Structure formats: structure tokens, C-alpha cells
Amino acid sequence: MLTIYTEQSGGTLTVKPSGRLDTTTAKQFHTEVNDQLDGVTDLVIDCSELEYISSAGLREFLSACRTVSANGTHVVKNCSDNVLGVFQITKLASLLNIE
What we know:
The chain has three helices and five strands; from the N terminus they run ββαββαβα. The protein is of the alpha/beta class. Strands 1, 2, 3, 4 and 5 form a five-stranded mixed β-sheet that branches. It starts with a strand and ends in a 10-residue tail after the last helix.
């Protein structure tokens, strides 16, 4: 199960996924986040409540970050060791701004 909390302030969109971002929930993430990216110049993805991310979830993170990075910035923060490990193993840690 995945719950996505979002907050928009000016050009900044903060996304906080909670639960598991995997094959069954990636489409939900895509729909809920991409529908809000128009006019966003700064994207913050707060992973403090993300328990698990699969390759499908990684694709959605990368897609959202690339969309915003064309005209702004992105940051992925508060990753657990397990989630951070997935970013490192897949080499996406070098493509995303991770704090």
C-alpha cells in the first residue's frame, strides 16, 4: 500500500510517499505526482516514510525529477538505509540529488 502526501508552496512541490512504491503502486505515484508538476521549479521527495522502492518506483522518481530538472531543481531526502541502498546499487544515486 502507498499513500502520497503532497504540499505545494509557490514553485516548490514536496512529495512524501509512505509505504511501498513498487510495481503495483508506481502508476498511482505517477498519476498523483505528474498531475502536479506543471509550474513546479523545485521538487522535494521526502522518503522518511518510504519502506520499500522497486525498479518501477525508481523509474517514477527519475521521471519526476527529470521533468522538474529541465527548468529547476530536485532533491530526494531522508532515505532509510534500505532505500538508499537501492539507489546506490542501481547507480541512480549519481543521477539524483540525494541528501
